[in-house]
Design goal:
It is built from 15 helices and 10 strands. It is globular and about 60 Å long. It starts with 25 loop residues before the first helix and ends in an 8-residue tail after the last helix.
Length: 388
């Protein structure tokens, strides 16, 4: 299996293809319509250093909702650049993105969450297949490193929402066979709310067996406590922030952040303005950096990462300085200006999330090999789920 801790000197920069004759030279890339955000107030030195660091340690991002946005526009060209969206391949490359989780979560009020999730899954799989020079499907930790080494953006599928399982472990396994690698334990099912039932615990065990990452973003306290107390693999928060700074349903309390750190998981800090605003005024890159440092303080430097929460139609509310997927260097420059070291940046952008992906895979290798045949009726009864 490819090593996730590749020597940066041996790893091509993100966007440098393994066929150099087809790659755009740096001068050409700078002339594209989607240039990175302007340098921060302290000048361009930190921004130049940020781009150099991202070439060696690209961003592994935890959440992009492009699958939903693509259903709203009749035509797109993500390879040449797409003005209707905040995400396309040129901007992902300019932002130094080396891996992306493509969110497949369907809204709970949709009449057919399973079918809706499958449509989004198919949309992203077709997208990855349509742009082989830019994207590569990733199903394992080895795929993550291999895509990086080839200059492609590793594309992970997920998370899917708990209600998309239809209360069935068979559906969970089917999603895994289709390439999904993360499950969000969101409220809204009788086995995740108010806390994990016996069937919910069986979902956790089966996810461990499959190597499916468990996303606790938005989970109720009883659910995340039961999950962390019973899961053999580390969990993640795919698009969260510090609730101690900004109250929001997706943000994590200090208790949850401390437990994520204690269980070797990772909190991926969201750029969404509603999750990071603090004063009611303009939300900027400084606010994101404040949340990153708070998560780092509570969970630990090995348990924090990035979640751009891009994949929206142009004009949607965005954080100033982080308006689209090209803007990660601006955030890294802000952190460098605050005294972050190169190893700390490398852990934030790539290593922490890559470690959690790898650990979930190792857990699956050591798990029992027989799939669970339990049903929700057998474990929780035909009515109200039995919360433990």
């Amino acid at each position: 299996m490819a090593d996730l801790q590749d020597d940066p000197q041996d790893t091509p920069a993100v966007g440098e293809l393994d066929e150099p004759a087809q790659a755009a030279p740096p001068e050409q890339e700078q002339e594209q319509d989607h240039d990175p955000a302007p340098a921060p107030e302290d000048g361009g030195h930190d921004l130049d250093r940020a781009r150099t660091l991202l070439a060696a340690h690209p961003v592994a991002d935890g959440h992009n909702s492009l699958a939903r946005a693509l259903a709203l526009i009749p035509w797109h060209d993500l390879e040449a650049g797409e003005s209707c969206l905040d995400t396309d391949i040129p901007r992902l490359r300019a932002g130094g993105v080396g891996a992306q989780f493509w969110a497949l979560t369907a809204e709970g009020d949709r009449p057919d969450p399973v079918g809706n999730t499958l449509e989004r899954l198919d949309r992203i799989r077709c997208l990855v297949a349509s742009y082989p020079e830019g994207l590569r499907l990733a199903l394992s930790a080895g795929d993550l490193a291999e895509a990086r080494n080839c200059g492609r953006i590793a594309s992970f599928l997920g998370p899917v929402a708990a209600h998309a399982l239809g209360d069935s472990l068979g559906t969970l396994r089917s999603f895994h066979l289709l390439g999904v690698r993360a499950l969000s334990l969101t409220p809204g099912t009788r086995w995740t709310e108010p806390g994990l039932s016996r069937f919910g615990l069986e979902v956790v065990r089966e996810s461990n067996r499959l190597g499916m990452l468990l996303d606790l973003c938005g989970a109720t306290p009883d659910t995340w406590r039961r999950t962390l107390g019973n899961s053999r693999a580390p969990a993640l928060l795919s698009r969260s922030a510090a609730a101690s700074l900004t109250e929001h349903p997706l943000n994590a309390s200090d208790d949850l952040l401390a437990e994520i750190g204690a269980h070797n998981g990772v909190c991926l800090v969201s750029f969404a303005p509603e999750q990071i605003e603090r004063t009611g005024g303009t939300v900027s890159v400084h606010d994101v950096a404040d949340h990153i440092e708070r998560v780092c303080e509570v969970a630990g430097p090995r348990h924090v990462g990035l979640s751009g929460t891009y994949g929206m139609i142009t004009g949607a509310p965005r954080t100033q300085g982080l308006e689209d997927a090209s803007c990660y260097p601006t955030l890294i420059a802000e952190l460098l200006g605050r005294g972050w070291t190169d190893p700390e940046i490398a852990a934030l952008t790539w290593e922490n999330l890559a470690r959690v992906v790898r650990d979930a895979e190792f857990t699956a290798r050591g798990a029992r090999s027989i799939a669970s045949t339990a049903t929700i009726e057998e474990l929780d009864g035909p009515g109200q789920a039995q919360v433990l």
